[in-house]
Amino acid sequence: MGIEMSTSYVSLRDNHMLKVLIGNEPIPEGDNYWNELLDFSFSPPVTISDSRLLTDVLHESLFLLSQNDTLTKHFLKITNCFLQRAPSLADDVMSKNEIYMQKTLNALFLTRLFLQFFLQNQSHDEVLEHFSPAKLKSKPTHIRSKSDTYRATTDLKTTFTLPHLSPIIPIRHTTYTTTQPNMYVSDGALHIKHRDTLYERLILSLFTILTEVEIKRTTMLIHLESLRFLLVILGTQLFSRDLKSHKDMFLNTFLSLKNSIIIEVVIHLLDNLTRFSVTIPLLPTEKASYLSYVPGYSWIFGANAESSTELPQLSLSTEELIRRFSTYLLLVLILQNPLTICTHNPYRRIFSNFRDFADSPPTSNPGLVTSYERFYTSICACLHQEETVLLLYQTLLRHSAMKSFIWSKTEFSPLLLPLLETLYSAEANSLHHVYMITIIILMMSQDNGFCTCIHTQVINSVPWYKEKKLVCITLGSLLVLSLMHLLVTNLTLLRDQYIHSNCSAILANIGSKIQNLHNIPSQKIINVFEGISKRYSQIQSPVGEKKKEECNVSLLK
């Protein structure tokens, strides 16, 4: 009856059904084996440690599958099993056919697991061979060693790189140009004439699940696995030797979808952010690990976490994962640079133009409408997460209407307090995270209304500030205190010139509007400038190590 549930994945190595799947004997597509294969009942791994453990256990099996699949085409057949079941998934949800839903989830999970291994270890052309129904001659395939599979790009500091922060100005052309077989460019967008390839139908099926299948307790795992699958497919660029190559047919498929489909996808991803905006406790041993689920980082490679042999209970953390995976997918889609294949990113264009319910007339396009207030509330509730900070930056950078909506607020504490808390513990966060926050506050400080309002809003207590007890301090005074604290931390630990420049620019912007400054930030300003003066004197006249240490201590006061 398929793969048995076990608290240890080690037993999968000896599973008879799996051995047949990875063997060199082709099984006909209509054989009852495919129905029996999908009769396992355990859920896909949720935590990074479980994903790592599963991939470790099945590495040899996946290697054999990649070698034999050019003859057996078992990957294509298991993918077809999912594609045959996916269209009726919405009806199965309505009829509560849980057995059929479980088999659909199992087929989706196996397809994603196999494709993930192929993408990590084979070239783009070799991966496309697995989607081809024709029998191709087996070619020598370079498979990376097991140590190579999990190497590199697991550092959280590399998750969001600075080049993503520069604005991109799209250039549109109204021409028809031949690019690749079955493709043409119209109005700067790439279009595929016939969607008859397996991977194109697979991507469309995944998008259909996200947009048409209602999120319920019984469908959460299917939505979560669909989001994972899409992130894995979008991670193909990480393994490309030529970053400027346009051979990535997966990315081309994403960029060439109909405008109506892209609108539905973007709006549903935004709805997922607002649907689960309430902060939900994560699994206790994985509190800070889910950022690594971004494609190309430790979820794809396998994190260096301790292997866990006990599967955790999903409970409410599944909702949190759906929200965060939706954020990752939305960011990856809007940050794609089409290069010369397509002169603009349709996902970025749709994201930059969604409208508010309150301002949208009944005759307007309903697909481009969402709630600004719910979106803003959900952003404020999750600003302690790095991906949410990046989403806020992209919103302020690209969506002028949403930016104006945020600037119109008279209460900035829900937005600013989580950012200041992160700046206070800057040494415990990545430089990119801190840098993004300083840029966001710098953008806010350019608005005179913001600079005035923050000095009239009083905060009763600040529990995360440990140096002194802060009571009845204005938001503006807390901002000045946090910036001075960040300046000291940067001078002594981080030593990043861009963070220093941004902090100085923010202080210069709000300086003329400061009023009723609290005594603690006032004293902090004096101490910081006194410490900086001492350091400058030391630079002009070299001193011993002991005096340098004394200078660092004085800065920290």
Description of the molecule:
With 557 residues, this protein is mainly alpha-helical. The protein has helices spanning 16-22, 33-37, 48-72, 74-85, 89-95, 98-121, 124-131, 146-149, 198-212, 220-234, 249-255, 259-275, 298-301, 317-334, 346-351, 372-381, 386-398, 400-407, 413-424, 431-445, 448-453, 475-494, 497-511, 519-540, 545-556, and strands at residues 176-178, 183-186, 189-192, 355-356, 369-370, 458-461, 471-474. It is built from 25 helices and 7 strands. It has a 3-stranded antiparallel beta sheet with strand order 1-2-3. A hairpin with a 4-residue loop joins strand 1 (176-178) and strand 2. Helix 10 packs parallel to helix 14 and helix 17 packs parallel to helix 20. The protein is elongated, with a radius of gyration of 26 Å. The termini are far apart.
Summarize the topology.
Elements: H1 16-22, H2 33-37, H3 48-72, H4 74-85, H5 89-95, H6 98-121, H7 124-131, H8 146-149, E1 176-178, E2 183-186, E3 189-192, H9 198-212, H10 220-234, H11 249-255, H12 259-275, H13 298-301, H14 317-334, H15 346-351, E4 355-356, E5 369-370, H16 372-381, H17 386-398, H18 400-407, H19 413-424, H20 431-445, H21 448-453, E6 458-461, E7 471-474, H22 475-494, H23 497-511, H24 519-540, H25 545-556
Parallel strand pairs: 4-5
Antiparallel strand pairs: 1-2, 2-3, 6-7
Helix pairs in contact: 1-3, 4-6, 4-9, 6-10, 9-10, 10-14, 12-14, 12-16, 14-17, 16-19, 17-20, 19-20, 19-22, 20-23, 22-23, 22-24, 24-25
